[in-house]
Design brief:
Helix content: 40-55%
Largest sheet: 2 strands, antiparallel
Structural class: mainly alpha
Strand order of the largest sheet: 1-2
Radius of gyration: 21 Å
Order of helices and strands: HHHHHEEHHH
């Protein structure tokens, strides 16, 4: 399906609100919109799909979702969402050893570890820059307040472990 100007207007409204990014795609679904977009984009890159193939894949995927889902319903919307998410828009494609998880250098095709050499083919993954997302989090006063509260809270209740000392207390 071709994108229309109406699609473009809807996309900008959806992306500006972007409240659904970390919510489930639909009730009971374990995937969020962010994770779904990352997985689909990784698939498109890995398999070097043509534009038509990518459009057909997205149409096929969204046909399986219940009404009211939050998935991008066109390649145009998927790409627009990807560009809007600053931490998703810039990435490096890297190879990692499927045996020892060593990140290979750009010119390497096989791991140099003697136990791995030639045994296992490497896997591709996308290395995302999370710095913009972290900067955005720290600009949010509620996030900062909660983070400070976690460090200052002195109670016997176990919650997020934010220091090695706290971890040692509950494991010793």
């Amino acid at each position: 399906p071709a994108s229309t100007d109406a699609d473009a207007d809807v996309v900008h409204e959806d992306l500006d609100a972007n409240e659904d990014a970390d919510e489930s795609l639909f009730p009971g679904c374990p995937l969020t919109l962010n994770l779904s977009v990352v997985l689909i984009m990784e698939f498109l890159v890995r398999h070097k799909l043509s534009q038509k193939s990518a459009e057909d894949l997205i149409e096929l995927l969204t046909a399986h979702f219940p009404q009211g889902h939050k998935m991008c319903t066109s390649l145009y919307r998927l790409k627009s969402y990807w560009k809007k998410q600053s931490c998703l828009s810039k990435y490096d494609k890297r190879l990692v050893c499927s045996n020892c998880d060593t990140i290979l250098q750009e010119d390497e095709q096989l791991c140099g570890n003697p136990e791995c050499l030639g045994v296992c083919p490497p896997h591709e993954f996308l290395l995302l820059n999370i710095k913009p997302a972290l900067e955005q989090l720290f600009r949010d006063p509620d996030f900062c307040t909660q983070l400070i509260r976690n460090f200052e809270e002195q109670s016997s209740m176990v919650s997020d472990i934010v220091s090695g000392a706290s971890y040692k207390k509950i494991t010793s």
